[in-house]
Amino acid sequence: MMDMAQTYLDKIRRRREEILERVDIALDHAGRHREDLKIMAVSKTVDIDAAADAVRAGYTLLGENRPQELVRKFEGLRAIENLPEYRLDMIGNLQKNKINAVLGHAGLIHSIESAALARAVSERAARRVEAGELSAPQRVLLEVNVSGEESKSGFEPEALRACIEELMELSGISICGLMTMAPRGSKEMAAKTFAGLRELRDELEGLYPALELRELSCGMSEDFDVAIEEGSTLIRLGRVAFNPSFALQ
After folding, report:
1. By C-alpha distance, which of 122, 116, 64 is closest to 93?
2. What is the DSSP string of 116-166?
3. Read out DSSP for 57-100?
4. I need a labelling partner for 232 at 20 to 30 A (CA). Which of 21, 40, 166, 225 fits?
């Protein structure tokens, strides 16, 4: 069993090196540096042992789509001795009845998709801070539906413009940036979507100097190179990180 585990660790470590080679090419094209980018291993489809191997392989950032799985991974990984330092983020849709489960477990929530959800997270996080159960407001990203696809969640850009001042006043959250997902199957559409997110970030920061949207969370296994060239600061890799046989596109 140990030999099999070591073999898997070796494979995902080699795959990480291949990913970094591709990342460096994209960064070079964009005139950027590796320290400008975070690489997340999305562990939603793997078990705790595989997630731990990802951390051992060098990933310092893990992402989960479901609150219950985030809590399970949080507790399971915390029980493993001598694991290198890492952060676990919530990247999937968050229902209001799951907020309490995520608070205190997620380093960053990527999927604040509406003003109502932002208010709900802020209210509950503020109560936790007041009670001494959280050390600081919950760090969040605002999810934006840049592409306009009906199947995607998130703020419409115009709706975000209309309510950003209200969101900035919420005491229980700290807005750290924006997140989006691109339509699948077209790198041209992906580039347009990611550029739109960057431009929206620049616009909002220009209008509100107190707003520091340092993170642009965009780019996944199929389009991370395009996202990097368009300014992503955090790419989210699932299959390409955990399945060494999955082709790098």
Report:
1. 64
2. HHHHHHHHHHHHHHHTTS-SSPEEEEEEB--S--TT--SB-HHHHHHHHHH
3. HT--EEEESSHHHHHHHHHHHHTSTTPPP-EEEE-S---GGGHH
4. 166
| pTM score of the predicted model | 0.94
Phi/psi-derived region of residue 6, left when phi > 0, alpha when psi is between -120 and 50, beta in every other case: alpha
Q: CA nearest 214: which of 176, 180, 181?
A: 176
Q: Beta strands 138-143 and 173-179: pairing type?
A: parallel
Rounded Cα–Cα distance for residues 38 and 61 (Å)? 8
> Within 10 Å of residue 45's Cβ, how many Cβ atoms?
12
Confidence band for 1, pLDDT divided at 50, 70 and 90: very low
Residues 119-125: contacts with CB under 8 Å, at least 24 apart: 119/170, 120/96, 121/94, 121/172, 121/173, 122/170, 122/171, 122/172, 122/173, 123/172, 124/99, 124/100, 124/172, 125/172, 125/173
Distance, in Å, from the CA atom of 174 to the CA atom of 136, rounded to the nearest integer, reads 9
| Domains, the chain, with CATH or none | 2-242 (3.20.20.10)
Q: Is 134 exposed, middle or buried (0-12, 13-18, 19+ CB in 10 A)?
A: middle
